Amino acid sequence: MPKYVTYSNIRKVLKIEVTKAEQFGLAYLTHYLQNNQNGVSHYFKRGAVTYSQDVLPSVVEEPYFQGLLPIKWDIPFAPKKDPKFKLFDLFAGIGGMRLAFQNLGGKCVFTSEWNYFAQKTYEANFGEVPFGDITKIDENEIPDHDILLAGFPCQPFSIAGVSKKNSLGRAHGFEDETQGTLFFDIKRILAEKRPKAFLLENVKNLKSHDRGNTFRVIKETLEGLEYSVYAEVLDGQHFVPQHRERIFIVGFDKRIYGDDIKFSFPELLPADHQIGEILEENPDPKYTLTDRLWEYLQEYAKKHREKGNGFGFGLTPPDGVARTLSARYYKDGSEILIPQRRKNPRRLTPRECARLQGFPEEFLIPVSDNQAYRQFGNSVVVPLVQAVGKRILNELKRLDGIHSVKSDRLCAAG
Questions:
Q1: I need a labelling partner for 20 at 20 to 30 A (CA). Which of 115, 296, 329, 401 fits?
Q2: Whether residue 195 is found in the same domain as residue 125
Q3: Cα–Cα distance for residue pair 253/47, rounded to 1 Å
Q4: Statement to judge: residues 395 and 255 lie in one domain
């Protein structure tokens, strides 16, 4: 009997490959693999066994993935052996928030993300397939956790999203029935699972959307659940060479901690990063703009300048700071273009986009360039989230000391 089985071998034998949306069987299986020793495996066991028997009928009584053998996690970001807390990664994207909190000692016990291209990237890096559409998941099927993370969809509240929906005559904000109302899935999960704390992230415009009414509803909803709520707009350029302002909303359970909560956001160091830090030495020539596209972008910018508008491309010299990377970057790369000698400017490569968001070099990019641009444009500045996360954990440690909280949610191993 081998001393361990590798995840890559399990992946091959049990056909763990994200090929379409809503692969709940794979989600059950991979969540079971990662949680078979920390007290929450019963949430996933039935689905994991059912899936494995469908794929490999000879695996019936005791499938070898049930923890009888230690698993060697030959993936970039293996689960922590001795985690300090449990977290839930909601609207997970490619796992930027998970990565930040995993760096701080956390263990993810449940994750949800509906986009299967993002699921593919997530599984390649964390060895776990996210569950799909959160609206189809009963909150009672989610394990207890200490911290809920959610970068909930921002399009209904972003400046670009609101402008696009207005032009199409469609609702935005909480009147958007597909994305805007997803905030209320956060509400129902918080109400049922009562994590000790949460961290939500969204675009800066959330605070001013609909003359402040949208943010007021969010804040009052969270406070109505008896959570203290703290919100601040922070800029990623304190950690990476990108001007990226996002609102962070932090909450602590007042049913546990009462009025003793004294959270404050981190004081950020001066912004002194330059985009030259993240550029590749010899990028593929395919990222250089064609003559036709470069001429189009120059004409487009000229037309809007004549109208007094500020629309146009953004050339970022090596000692400069980039504009905000967006999910539309794949279209023409116009918001962040890198000047080149005797050549047209070029787009960032997907790896440079990863660096611009603070992802480490070992982060795998298993999707096409277009999908990668979308994924990194929708993600978070990992070190900024980690800085906020550190303050959350420090406050929880202080509060738990005051209240002598011994959470049975903390893992022993995973």
A1: 329
A2: yes
A3: 32
A4: yes
- Catalytic residue check, 108: no
- Tokens describing residue 114: 């509906």
pLDDT at 320 exceeding the cut of 60: yes
Which residue type does 229 have?
Answer: V
Q: Are 230 and 185 in a shared domain?
A: yes
CA distances from 154 to 81, 188, 256, 414 (A): 34, 19, 30, 32
Residue 206, CB-side half-sphere exposure with 13 Å CA sphere: 26
Question: Rounded to an integer, what distance in angstroms lies between the CA atom of residue 204 and that of residue 290?
Answer: 33
CA 145 to chain centre: 17
242: phi > 0 → left, psi -120 to 50 → alpha, else beta; which? beta
> Residue 50 — φ and ψ, nearest 5°?
-60, -45
Out of 108, 154, 353, 411, which one is annotated catalytic? 154
Tens of pLDDT, residues 9-60 = 889 888 899 988 778 999 999 999 998 778 898 899 889 888 887 776 655 4
Task: State the residue range of the domain holding 256.
Answer: 78-270+366-414
What CA–CA distance (Å, rounded) separates 358 from 80? 21
Task: Please report, rounded to a whole number, the percentage of residues in the chain having pLDDT higher than 90.
Answer: 66
Distance CA 401, CA 219 (A): 27
Examine the fold and report which residue of 365, 380, 400 is the final residue of a domain before the chain moves on. Answer: 365
> Tens digit of pLDDT for each residue in 257-285?
999 999 999 999 899 999 999 999 999 99
Say if residue 385 is in the same domain as residue 361.
no
Same domain, 34 and 172: no
Examine the domain organization and report whether 202 and 293 are in the same domain: no
Calpha distance 26→48 (Å, rounded): 8
State the CB neighbour count (10 A cutoff) for residue 311.
Answer: 11
Question: In degrees rounded to 5, what are phi and psi of residue 232?
Answer: -155, 145
In tens, the pLDDT along 106-121 reads: 999 999 999 999 999 9
Is residue 111 located within the same domain as residue 41?
no
